[in-house]
Amino acid sequence: MAIQQRAERTRQEILSAAARVFDRWGYERASLARIAGDARVTTGALVFHFATKGDLAVAVRARARAVTGITVESACLSAEGVGGTAVDKLVITTHALIRLFETDPVARAGERLARELQPTDPASSRDCPWRREVSRLARYAVAEKALRPGVDATAVATLIGYVVTGVELEMRCPCPPADALRLLGDGGPQGPCVPESGALHGSAEERLRRIWELILPGLVHPAAQPSQDPAVTPRKPGPASTPAPLAPGQTSYGSAPAPAPRPQGPLPQGPRTPAAPGLHPPTPRTAAPGPHAQGQAPRPAPGPTPPPRPAPHTSRPMPA
Q1: What is the DSSP secondary structure assignment for residue 293, as one 8-state letter?
Q2: Which one is predicted more confidently, 98 or 194?
Q3: Residue 302, φ and ψ in degrees, nearest 5
Q4: Would you say 91 and 160 are in contact if contact means Cβ atoms under 8 Å apart?
Q5: CA separation, residue 227 to residues 54, 92, 141, 161 (Å)
Q6: Are 129 and 68 in contact (CB under 8 A)?
Q7: How far is it, in rounded angstroms, from Cα 178 to Cα 181?
Q8: What is the pLDDT of residues 170-205, one digit of tens each?
Q9: Which helix (H) or strand (E) holds 203?
């Protein structure tokens, strides 16, 4: 009994070592000697449990499928507990997968082996548990009418598969921190080291969250928005609009402009405009004391003085 337990423990250690080697080096560059060295066993002990490298790859992929299957099932059950829709389950499942890929070399090794061995094993994609679950959830989303009209479930499942695979590949090429970039960029024959143009930075889950924010408005029907999940906060799709510029003195949209400050002191006197020829500018009338101050009726204002009328012409008699 003890011998069987020790043999099983050795087998599991070899599988874990093989997963680490496959995850780091890939199938072609992995060797039985390298796997045996990582497992700290002899090559003979390794061959006793796994005759070929192909047998090791099959066993690692079987363990990876079991791990990912449990992960996606738990994620869907957690979404059902809060009344999540199929779109909610899609988002939560992908985030659970990325967290698994970040922490479990067996799951990562299974993904890498599936890509590298797919030309020789076309059925490998159909055996992937998380891809089957994503396809199922995409069909449920169409049945719930949660997707926009004309969106195909197969296309949605393919897109999500590309997203998960892309984020998992990016995890294998982490961006160096800013301090390392500054030190590497000080000189050298390769020139300054700068991050790849257009690449998303941050943790793998943060990258996935930003990708979901971009693709959700194009997939989800406006009337069926996914619930607010702590892993991702989708934006409500709608027509893009450019806000009008703020008015002078306005601090934010919806607020009235601030009143202009009143000038202090006397108002400045501007230049006077000369009156047109032939016209007299109006003269301000000032009240002067007169008879109307004692209760008498005010006199009408004098009008314009008429020009003098010529005297009538009279004829004088001629002297005799």
Answers
A1: G
A2: 98
A3: -65, 140
A4: no
A5: 44, 11, 14, 22
A6: yes
A7: 5
A8: 888 755 544 444 444 444 444 444 444 445 667 888
A9: none
